Amino acid sequence: MSENDPYGPALAALYAQKEEIETAITLLERLTGAAPSAGLVAAATSAPGVSEIRSDTFFNLSMTKAAAKCLRIKKKPLTTRQVADFLKEGGYVSRSKHFRDTVYAGLHRLAKSGIAVRLDEQGTWGLSEWYGSSRPQPKPRKTPPAKPETAEPDVTGDENGGEE
Question: What is the mean pLDDT of the chain?
Fold first, then answer.
């Protein structure tokens, strides 16, 4: 796409809207328990250039939308580093000095919303729709045991609390 292409910004905006709509559809299907739309899957796989990442693929998308789109395009689990590399390759613009951390935060938000799932401790991510109801659940974090509540101190100095 050249710099003088008058259709570039319009296409980028339409791609962004398309991604938002597909994300909303996926979320609604998950909430209602409906099967993923076969029409969307067929359209996505037959659309030209969908399996490759172009220089403007992620232009003007939010981090979460870009990360989800990256996973959909690649159709396989990716590490945080791989997603970050593909986002840069696809035109995602960020001023972050720690871009991979920014990508991790976006993927984590996707996981909290149920769109993505973290597959292992090394930071490999996949889309929840790939796993259906049998998707792997992240291992719960180890939390320190709760501290026992302390009773009020005995101000009388008597072990029985002043009672006999």
Answer: 75
Q: Report, as an integer, the average pLDDT of 120-147.
A: 72
Is there a domain that residue 146 lies in?
A: no
First to last CA, the chain: 90
Q: Which helix (H) or strand (E) holds 117?
A: strand 116-118
- What values do phi and psi take at 60, rounded to 5? 65, 25
In which element (H, E) is residue 103 found? helix 99-112
Q: Which residue has the higher pLDDT, 160 or 120?
A: 120
Would you say 97 and 152 are in contact if contact means Cβ atoms under 8 Å apart? no
Angle between helices 63-74 and 99-112 (to 10 degrees): 80
Residue 159 lies inside a defined structural domain of this protein: no
Domains held by the chain: number: 1
The C-alpha angle with vertex 51 and arms to 49 and 55, in degrees rounded to 5, equals: 60
